[in-house]
UniProtKB/TrEMBL annotation:
GO terms for cellular component: cytoplasm. Its EC number is 5.1.3.1. The keyword Metal-binding applies. Its cofactor is Zn(2+); Fe(2+); Co(2+); Mn(2+). This is Ribulose-phosphate 3-epimerase. Keywords: Carbohydrate metabolism, Cobalt, Isomerase, Manganese, Metal-binding, Zinc. Substrate binds at S7, H65, G141, F142, G143, G144, D174, G175, G176, G196, S197. The active site is at D34, D174. It catalyses: D-ribulose 5-phosphate = D-xylulose 5-phosphate. GO terms for biological process: pentose catabolic process; pentose-phosphate shunt.
Amino acid sequence: MIQLAPSILSADFARLGEQVEDVTKAGADLIHVDVMDGHFVPNISFGASVMKSLDNLETAPYDVHLMIENPDSYLGDFVTEKTEYITVHQEACKHLHRTIQHIRSYGVGAGVSLNPATPVSSLENILEDVDLVLIMSVNPGFGGQSLIHSTLRKIRKLADIREKNNLKFRIEIDGGVNLKTIPDVAETGVDIIVAGSAVFGAEDLEKRVAELKEYCR
């Protein structure tokens, strides 16, 4: 079954804890934590302290997405008992294999992300070492963008590579997934779907999570 990971980038930060508990109780499998530094991407979001403020609440595990430069300097800050994955960008890492091993040294799943224009072939020599590949289906930096449909081909290609080489990494998509686009997304071989404004922009969070998860079964 495909997992759903609502992105708190689109949450109401005045009600962050409440909303994260609501989507967790509604059936969210992961909580996607988008971290932006204003350098790697043209926006600033939040840091580890905001994520850790949720630790004592009833939340799904954290799926941390670091859209930042020099991620190795900050990896430890995002490790808690709830951290399931930490994902870094291929484009931000000079020594990607070393960074992946650094993440794994904390006992959490290691992920690598690709921007829309970065080809899958750039990961040829790292796929055996990662637990997760995140395909950006929008240019990172802002929520609420429209899905770039050509990125779905990248997911299908990754799924084919995984099957042919008997690899175990999971495939995630982030950007522009909503009730209109999720039928096409769900047929690509993807394992985790990130949805931000499609979830937290809904009047009824519980209903919206249920609607999206119908396509994940």
